[in-house]
Amino acid sequence: MRYVLISLMLLVSSVFAQTAGEAEMAFNREYNEAKAVFDARVKAAQDKFVAVLKEELKRLTQKGDLDGAITVREKIKSLEDETKPVVNNTTTTSTYNLVIIKAQYGANNKFIDATDYLNSKIVNGKLSYLNKDEITKDLGDPLPGIDKSLIIDYKKNGKIQQVIVPKNEKVNL
């Protein structure tokens, strides 16, 4: 009788463990699905907000409000930094002491906006860039056959500056 009772307890215990295991797996599956939906909604809302901020940045730079543009650019950077992947429990971002406020590529009052493009080329707070053919390839040529310049308004170490880079000269900021 004793063996029957022990066998019965083991059977009940194994059924309970199997049911608890299945319940835990179902919970984990539902949790992960809900988290994925939530993360996607947060990312979509954040992307919309960044798009609105980029429009505001464009408006402020066209208006010539560089202080306002810097504030908005820094907010965009912080939002974009939040979504960067984590490596070894630290974010992959570094402290930026260089921000391109406005960059234009062209000549003769016909320019294309290169601000986001050059900001994407900043590595470890520095911009070192030579190949203007790459700008033309990636952003288009505003005036084919004419020498163009790159005009950059930037903030580095808290100081707003401008540089005009003629054809075939290297950018070092």
Quick recap:
It contains 4 helices and 8 strands; from the N terminus they run ααββββαβαβββ. With 173 residues, the chain is of the alpha+beta class. The chain has a 4-stranded antiparallel beta sheet.
What does this structure look like?
By secondary structure, the chain is α+β, with helices and mostly antiparallel strands. It has 2 domains: 2-72; 96-172, no CATH class. It is 53% helix and 21% strand. The chain is built from 4 helices and 8 strands, in the order H-H-E-E-E-E-H-E-H-E-E-E. It has helices spanning 2-63, 66-82, 115-119, 132-139; strands at 86-87, 90-91, 98-107, 110-113, 128-129, 149-156, 159-165, 171-172. The strands form 3 sheets. It has a 4-stranded antiparallel sheet with strand order 4-3-6-7. A hairpin with a 2-residue loop joins strand 1 and strand 2. The longest helix has 62 residues, at 2-63.
Structural class: alpha+beta
- Rg over CA atoms, rounded to whole Å, is 27 Å
Helix proportion: 40-55%
Total strands: the figure is: 8
Strand line-up in the sheet with most strands: 4-3-6-7
Mean pLDDT across all amino acids: 75
**In whole angstroms, how far apart are the ends?**
86 Å
State the shape.
elongated
The proportion of residues in beta strands is: 15-25%
Question: Count the helices. How many?
Answer: 4
- Mind summarizing the main beta sheet? 4 strands, antiparallel
Low-confidence stretches: 85-95
Number of domains: 2
Order of helices and strands: HHEEEEHEHEEE
